[in-house]
Amino acid sequence: MLRYIIFAPLAGALINWLVGRRLRDERFIGIVACGSVGLSTIIGFYLAFKSAGALRSTQPVLDHLWTWIQVGSFRADFGLAMDRLSGVYVCFITFVGFLIHVFATGYMHGDRGYYRFFAYLNLFMFAMLTLVLGDNFLLMFVGWEGVGLCSYLLIGYYLDKAEAAPAAKKAFIANRVGDWGFVMGMLLLFWMTSGAGAPSISFFDKPGLTSALATIAHMTPEPFAWHYLWYGGITSIAILLFIGATGKSAQIPLYVWLPDAMAGPTPVSALIHAATMVTAGVYMLARCSAIFTHAPTAMFIVAIIGAATALFAATIGLAQNDIKKVLAYSTISQLGYMFLACGVGAFIAAIFHVMTHAFFKAQLFLGSGSVIHGMHHEQDMRRMGGLRKYMPITWLTMCCGWLAICGVPIWAGFFSKDEILWKVWVAGPFSIPAGDAKALWFVGIVTALLTAVYMTRLMVMTFWGRERFGAGGADDARHQVEHDGHSAEAVSAHDSHTPHESPWSMTIPLIVLAVLSTVGGLVGVPYAISSLAGGHPQNYFEEILAPSISTVPANEAPETSTTKLNLLSPPPEPIDGKPAIAPVGEAPGSATTHETPSPQEINEERLLALVSVLIALSGIGIGWFMFERRPLRAMPGLLENKYYVDEIYDVAIINPIEAGSREGLWKIFDVGVIDGIIHTLGGAVVRAGRTIRYLQFGFVRGYAAIILAGALILIGYFAYSGAHVLRFLVK
Amino acid sequence: MVPQLSWYLALSAVLFTIGVVGVMIKRNVISMFMCIELMLNAVNLTFVAFSSFFRDVSGQLFVFIVMTVAAAEAAVGLGIIIAIFRSRESLDVDDASTLKL
User: Fold this and answer.
1) Exposure pattern of A618-647 as b/e (b: 16+ CB <10 Å)?
2) A704 vs B98: CB contact, 8 Å cut-off?
3) Interface contact A708-B94, CB threshold 8 A
């Protein structure tokens, strides 16, 4: 059954590529694209939620297609597996993906490459689902590369846009750097499991194959020390895999491709560069939690990189004027949160945030797409303003996304972000010094504040204030002159269009996603909060995912409550929006295997939740008062120019490589060494030939004489000494 | 007087030497060609002589092969000679030296 989940979008891609390109019928293409993704959505939900489905049983649903590679002890299957982690991923990927496909049928209306767009988009779904469902590292890597390829194709989708092709290349190359880490980590893992007597790169136990992760889980954790990074053990594997994750999930130092990736169509930004593909790194870390929990040094680095990225990207997002760029930096920042959570061992909180982020960030991106569509492809927020009158549905739904990302209670982002911050606050098990954990928490809370500020800025600049499009924007005439560069008639042509609300195919996904951003967080209400309302004392989301996630070896983990398995209650639907609290017929005593947190801890958690609510509200307040009156307030140039990171990379890395390639590799090595060898050899042959050709003197009788002389010499030789040779041979 | 093996060998050597010398000193292509045939037949003679001497038929088989090859070679060789003569109006091998650099 699992195979249909991945092959339905592939079939859709093929049909659109082969048939759709001939028909050029938008209705046909849209139905094929949405239908194939809808099919895998239905199958995915069925397999996840049926009575012995992936989210209910402890055993993964396996689907072995064929043994792909078998060389010696190395075996890689083309096999799919859906356990609880991939089940959650499949559910939100297919569902959000389906909504975005529907949205795109409206957004891409009238585009010349309609069939191409949907073929790529379906191909992306195939690759992403392969990534998530692959039951070993190599198949995951196939999906990993596949999503990279589709990302490349879709970023460069607008062939006539000058910045699209370099942006696509940049994304591809930055991902290559990360892929190096992935492959090396995979090889090292295989080498280590071979050393342990169970060579494998599989995630799961299969007939005749042991899970590599289980093998690692039985090893002793490596202690916290920096030299383990180069030791070639578990820590090295973990850090190499993390390098792969930084590429795919846009973390420092490889994040630079993601803002540029906004050159692609907005549905692509929503699907690939916000909701699904960029969270593949988090998925990989969570999948390999057994490896990471045995490598505290790597975990510490993951946490630091995550926190640094979160803060860094948030500050940049504060000063961007392109609506999609703000959201891009916001995505990087939120991904930083997820890695911060992974780094302190809270993999489940990270996945929870991945899911809620998929809802609200997809919502925000699609909302921005709706704005861009309504504004006739204007992306500069300085030329928006007052749009809530024109696009009420977009405005209202984006408000849900906005409140969710800011972390206002009830909205989804609050629960996941708060969960992460709480887990960071109590992080102890990974030998992170307590002070460091608190510092990371502080970074997280500052990021939360900045997030609220820049998202408020985005909303205010877009939907409130004076209308700055057309002739009305007197106060931004300066900016139009500075930044526009358009001629006067271009501006006046723009005036003739007023913003309009988008068609239903775009607003319905917006509404669904807004509902999900509002209530989607309720599947993971922590105990400290649900107990306030006398609700169920468990965090459903944590409970569902716990069996898939390896935690710290028990002797040093205070948080072992999550490792135990308790599945007496059916898990709630995480994405259909039903509130998960207070299920019918759930006895409170069923939670006996859970260690209820001590009241002291609960109070601390509540206090921190209160702090983060206050931070979110004050961030919104700051944003409101700073930008409501003066939406065009000048931001610090350092932030607006993204800390000049692209320029620094140019100077420090790209230019030396280019110069080295041009001057060294081309002019010295290629021209000098390679061409030199060839020319020397060729010249030697020519000179030798020129000398030897004088042997050919051209007189037939001369040749005959030479033959005769040769024959005589041979006969003479054998006549004198050949007798001995013959005798020797005969003997 | 019964012919000895050595007589045949001596005759063969004489014929062969005449052939070699002919190839070396003759300038006419036809003559050179005939000298080559002479050498081949000298060798054939030794083959037959040894075959008879050792009571072994394989020498005679070799002669058949040599004659077959010689016939083919004569056909090709004469074809070449005719072609050369047509293009140069001459049978002097020293004139056919355009391959020389």
Assistant:
1) ebbebbbeebeeebbeeeeeeeeebeebee
2) no
3) no
Q: Give the residue from chain B lying closest to A696, CA to CA.
A: B100
In A495-637, at which residue ranges do the beta strands (DSSP E only) sit?
none
**Position A707, amino acid:** I
CB neighbour list of residue A183: distance below 8 Å, 6 or more residues apart: A141, A244
Gap from B1 CA to chain A (nearest CA, Å) = 31
Q: Which residues of A touch B42 (CB under 8 A)?
A: none
CB crowding A660-683: b at 16 or more within 10 Å, else e? eeeeeeeeeeeeeeeeeeeeeeee
Distances (CA, A) of A423 to A141, A346, A353: 30, 6, 13
Place of tokens 């000193």: B25
- Nearest alpha-carbon partner for A520 in A573, A575, A581: A575
Look at A701 and B101 and tell me if their CB atoms are within 8 Å: no
For the question of an ipTM over 0.85, the answer is no
| Residue found under tokens 């590799």 | A665
With b for 16 or more beta-carbon neighbours within 10 A and e for fewer, the A380-415 pattern comes to bbbbbbbbbebbebbbbbbbbbbbbbbbbbebbbbb
Which residues in chain A come in under a pLDDT of 70?
428-434, 470-497, 530-538, 551-597, 722-731
Contacts of A701 in chain B (CB under 8 A): 23-27, 32, 93-94
Q: Does A728 touch chain B (CB under 8 A)?
A: no
Place of tokens 């809370």: A445
With an 8 Å Cβ cutoff, the interface of chain B facing chain A consists of 20, 23-27, 32, 93-94, 96-101
Q: What is the reported pLDDT for A554? A: 42
Reported pTM: 0.77
Element (DSSP H or E) covering residue A66: strand A61-71
Distances (CA, A) of A498 to A373, A389, A398, A463, B69: 11, 11, 20, 14, 98
Angle at A657 between CA A652 and CA A660, to 5 degrees: 120
CB contact under 8 A, A696 and B99: yes
Which residue from A698, A705, A708 is facing B97, i.e. has the nearest CB?
A698
- CB-CB contact of A139 with A77 (8 Å): yes
CA distance A51 to A199: 34
CB spacing of A708 vs B93 below 8 angstroms: no
CB contact under 8 A, B25 and A701: yes
Residue A69 in 3-state DSSP? strand
**Would you state the pLDDT for residue A11?**
95
Question: Which residue of chain B is at minimal alpha-carbon distance from A693?
Answer: B101
Residue A386's pLDDT is what? 85
Contact B100 A708 (CB under 8 A): no
Single-letter code of the amino acid located at A503: P
Q: Which chain B residue shows the shortest CA-CA distance from A701?
A: B24
- Closest-CA distance of chain B to residue A665, Å: 42
Could you give the 3-state DSSP secondary structure of residue A62? Answer: strand
Residue A217, pLDDT score: 87
Rounded CA-CA distance A430/A423 in Å is 12
For residue A253, say if its preceding peptide bond is cis, omega within 30 degrees of 0: yes
Nearest to B93 among A693, A700, A708 (CB): A700
Whether A708 and B20 lie within 8 Å, measured CB to CB: yes
Print burial letters for A457-483: b (CB count within 10 Å at least 16), e (below 16). bbbbbbbbbebbbeeebeebeebbeee
